[in-house]
Structure formats: structure tokens, C-alpha cells
Amino acid sequence: MISLYSGEFLGLSVKELMIPSERVAHVQVGNSLEHALLVLTKSGYTAIPVLDSRYRLMGLISTPIIMDSILGLERIEFEQLDTKKVESAMNTEIPRINVQSNLQSSLNLLVDNPFLCIEDQSGIFEGILTRRSVLLRLSNEVKRNYRK
Ligand code: AMP
Predict the structure, then answer these.
(1) Could you tell me which of 15, 106, 122, 140 has the fewest CB atoms within 10 Å of its CB?
(2) Ligand 1 atom at shortest distance from the alpha carbon of 23
(3) Is the pTM of this model over 0.70?
């Protein structure tokens, strides 16, 4: 078995496990909610990062957030999709991890979040750490150690 205390696994850098920014579907603050819904639907992801024009991480947008923001008193006001901007609806209260951090400091956050956004010291978006990639790595480590 791998020893979780050896530092081998928990000491892994998040950089090593992250999906880099160029492979992450995202939208920009000034995009319309219609565009965001299109990206979410086409990619099949539940939530995606929102960036500004300088590639800084501003928040997350998801299909439930979009639907909630166009919910009228008696109907869903689809016509608002075109006029409302992502920045008016996005969730800005999101956990952020630094690209220099290790897995140990992120594990707790992954319990409640399917993925975490990674940024550098100046808030520039670097990529995401998904629960899947962490579990995949753990699973591979466990298999490797059983074979020894
Ligand atoms: P997964 O663990 O691969 O199922 O991903 C969990 C969540 O992470 C997805 O539902 C998305 O919200 C987000 N995610 C994973 N991969 C990407 C990606 N390439 N681009 C944008 N979001 C992603």
C-alpha cells in the first residue's frame, strides 16, 4: 500500500495533476448568458471558469446559475439570455488554489467541489484540478503498490 504519510502522494504538486488552462473550456465576463449556455451545453460540463480579458480568474458559471438568473415570476424569460452578461450572474465566491500548492492543501476542498480553479500569484488562471484526476492518480498509485 502507498503510505499517505510518506509525502509521496499528498506532496504531489497540483501543477502535475492539473488540466492546463489551454484545455479548459471557459467564458469571459463580457460574454452573454446565451454564449455561456452554449459552451456549457456543447462541452457537457456542469460549471466552467469565467475569466477577464487578461486571463484572470473572476468566478464560475453553471447552467443552474444561468437558469436561476432568467427566472421570472411566472415563466423562464429566455429573451434575457441575449442581453444579460456572464458577470451579472456568475458565482464569485469560489475556492481558489495556488499553482505552487500541493495536493494535501487541496484535498479538503475537493470533498465539496468537483473541481478547483488554479491561479498564479497575480490571479492569472492556470488550469483546474478535478476530483477525477486526483482519484485516477490515487487509483494508479494503489495498483502500482499492490504489484510490488
Ligand atoms: P470530471 O471530474 O472530469 O467529471 O470534471 C468535473 C467538472 O470539472 C466538470 O463537470 C466541469 O465542471 C469541470 N471540468 C472538467 N474538465 C473540464 C474542462 N476541460 N474544461 C472546463 N471544465 C472542466
Answers:
(1) 122
(2) 19
(3) yes
